């Protein structure tokens, strides 16, 4: 078995994580802290940021603080990153993780759903990258940028189409920036996770037959075989960032799906179409967040979901999702 060399140390570097107050972002921040980085979390909710900083403060390593910022606001993001760079004498690592996920048929989510996904997921990543790059180019250690995509950006997933479209754009952005920024000493890592047990089902937005959409999504996101431990995922992502890898695809199912689509796109599309036929149809337009949908579940459905998605429910408690 091939043994990878030790990852280059990043102790003492300054790192920014957008969407860092919960879920995967929180765990990425923890991994950076454990490696001795000074970490700044960016998120929209001040109270949530405060809880995240309190959770992370117990970990030895670097320092951690939170800054309120909406990555959709380009000017505000530029100002916040400039302030962080001045306070820390530069930026060395930036992870663009912020975004939303919507679950439901495309016609139920509608044009607004696609626009919201592009604004939050793609434009959030684009704004972060363009605001960070001038600072990363000046990093004595050589700047590192990671853009969190998804296997849904490599293979379109039914009932996740706005998310897939936005993540596909993130994948192209990461690949193109990797090629352009090498001349400036900055490396860009494209990260494409599959299902992870982060507890994010509580913040996902559900349209169409909301209860049934919530049921299948929350169950699959917590399935031990199909989904991955979020802590393990965060560790692998930060290791890839340390090693300046161009791309990482997480979970065996995600790697299999991406490879199958690349080798046999027509066959893969037919298989995905077969899966789409068993997903819920019709339902209401507009969306509700997962916690609201869960609150309206009947006791039998709630008990069944608590069994099927037990790992994901525990993840929600651990990773500041409630």
TrEMBL record:
<dbReference type="InterPro" id="IPR020904">
    <property type="entry name" value="Sc_DH/Rdtase_CS"/>
</dbReference>
<dbReference type="InterPro" id="IPR057326">
    <property type="entry name" value="KR_dom"/>
</dbReference>
<keyword id="KW-0560">Oxidoreductase</keyword>
<comment type="similarity">
    <text>Belongs to the short-chain dehydrogenases/reductases (SDR) family.</text>
</comment>
<protein>
    <submittedName>
        <fullName>SDR family oxidoreductase</fullName>
        <ecNumber>1.-.-.-</ecNumber>
    </submittedName>
</protein>
<dbReference type="Pfam" id="PF00106">
    <property type="entry name" value="adh_short"/>
</dbReference>
<feature type="domain" description="Ketoreductase">
    <location>
        <begin position="13"/>
        <end position="199"/>
    </location>
</feature>
<dbReference type="InterPro" id="IPR002347">
    <property type="entry name" value="SDR_fam"/>
</dbReference>
<dbReference type="GO" id="GO:0016491">
    <property type="term" value="F:oxidoreductase activity"/>
</dbReference>
<dbReference type="InterPro" id="IPR036291">
    <property type="entry name" value="NAD(P)-bd_dom_sf"/>
</dbReference>
């Amino acid at each position: 078995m091939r043994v990878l060399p030790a990852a280059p140390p990043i102790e003492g570097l300054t790192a920014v994580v957008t969407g860092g107050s919960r879920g995967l972002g929180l765990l990425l921040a923890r991994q950076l802290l454990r490696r001795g980085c000074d970490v700044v979390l960016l998120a929209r909710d001040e109270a949530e940021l405060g809880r995240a900083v309190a959770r992370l403060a117990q970990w030895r390593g670097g320092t951690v603080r939170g800054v309120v910022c909406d990555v959709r606001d380009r000017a505000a993001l530029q100002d916040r990153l400039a302030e962080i760079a001045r306070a820390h004498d530069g930026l060395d690592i930036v992870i663009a993780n912020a975004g939303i996920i919507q679950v439901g048929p495309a016609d139920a989510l509608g044009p607004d759903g696609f626009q919201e996904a592009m604004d939050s997921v793609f434009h959030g990543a684009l704004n972060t990258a363009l605001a960070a790059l001038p600072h990363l180019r000046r990093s004595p250690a050589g700047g590192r940028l990671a853009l969190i995509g998804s296997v849904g950006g490599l293979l379109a997933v039914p009932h996740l189409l706005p998310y897939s479209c936005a993540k596909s754009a993130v994948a192209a952005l990461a690949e193109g920036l990797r090629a352009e920024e090498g001349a400036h000493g900055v490396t860009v890592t494209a990260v494409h996770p599959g299902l992870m047990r982060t507890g994010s089902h509580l913040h996902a937005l559900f349209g169409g037959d909301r209860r049934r959409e919530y049921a299948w999504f929350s169950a699959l996101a917590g399935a031990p075989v199909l989904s991955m431990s979020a802590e393990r995922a965060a560790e692998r992502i930060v290791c890839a960032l340390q090693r300046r890898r161009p791309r990482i695809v997480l979970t065996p199912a995600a790697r299999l799906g991406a490879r199958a689509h690349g080798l046999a796109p027509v066959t893969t599309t037919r298989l995905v179409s077969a899966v789409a036929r068993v997903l819920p149809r019709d339902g209401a337009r507009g969306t509700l967040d997962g916690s609201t949908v869960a609150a309206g579940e009947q006791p039998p459905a709630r008990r069944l979901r608590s069994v099927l998605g037990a790992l994901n429910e525990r993840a929600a408690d651990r990773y500041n999702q409630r």
